[in-house]
């Protein structure tokens, strides 16, 4: 005698499954949220949380998709300076403290420049995005990062 297994699905099951699959497909993201609590932009990120990953960064990249970037995660908050050595695209660098609050922005960093750029204060996170991204999305000091799809300090 064969018995059939009956599985009952909620009418919302397809929606829940689709959202779960989309979330997994999206991968790591950083949403930048304004002081008013409204999201300004969401960036699909590559996570640079080891010394080797942070050292290479986005060097040698000739293209960065819109709403894509790299989040540099440091083991502690300290003054951070970056350069654009071997980086052929202009970038905005968004510096955030240990609470993920945006402290400052270096806008449109010059490609291939060896000049050190940074902001005042101690940063634990630096998000690199295409040059002009911050102006386009009205991102400013006081905004904050919300991380999804990854935990910033799992590999350090």
Global Rg: 19 Å
User: What form results from the Cα inertia axes?
Assistant: globular
Q: Approximately how much helix is present in the residues?
A: 10-25%
CATH structural class = Mainly Beta
Number of DSSP helical runs: 3
Order of helices and strands: HEEHEEEEEEHE
Distance between the termini: 56 Å
Q: Total number of β-strand segments?
A: 9
Would you mind describing this structure in some detail?
The strands form two sheets. The protein has a seven-stranded mixed beta sheet. Strands 4-7 form a two-stranded antiparallel ribbon. The protein has three helices and nine strands. The chain has helices spanning 13-26, 51-56, 133-137, and strands at residues 29-33, 39-48, 68-78, 81-82, 91-96, 102-109, 117-118, 123-130, 144-148. Mean pLDDT is 87; it is low at 1-25. It has a single domain, classed as Jelly Rolls. The protein has 156 residues and is of the alpha+beta class. The longest helix has 14 residues, at 13-26. Helices cover 16% and strands 37% of the residues. It is globular, with a radius of gyration of 19 Å.
Write the layout of secondary structure elements.
Elements: H1 13-26, E1 29-33, E2 39-48, H2 51-56, E3 68-78, E4 81-82, E5 91-96, E6 102-109, E7 117-118, E8 123-130, H3 133-137, E9 144-148
Q: Which descriptors apply to this entry?
A:
alpha+beta; seven-stranded mixed β-sheet; 3 helices; Jelly Rolls; globular; 156 residues; two-stranded antiparallel sheet
Quick overview:
The chain is α+β, with helices and mostly antiparallel strands and 156 residues long.
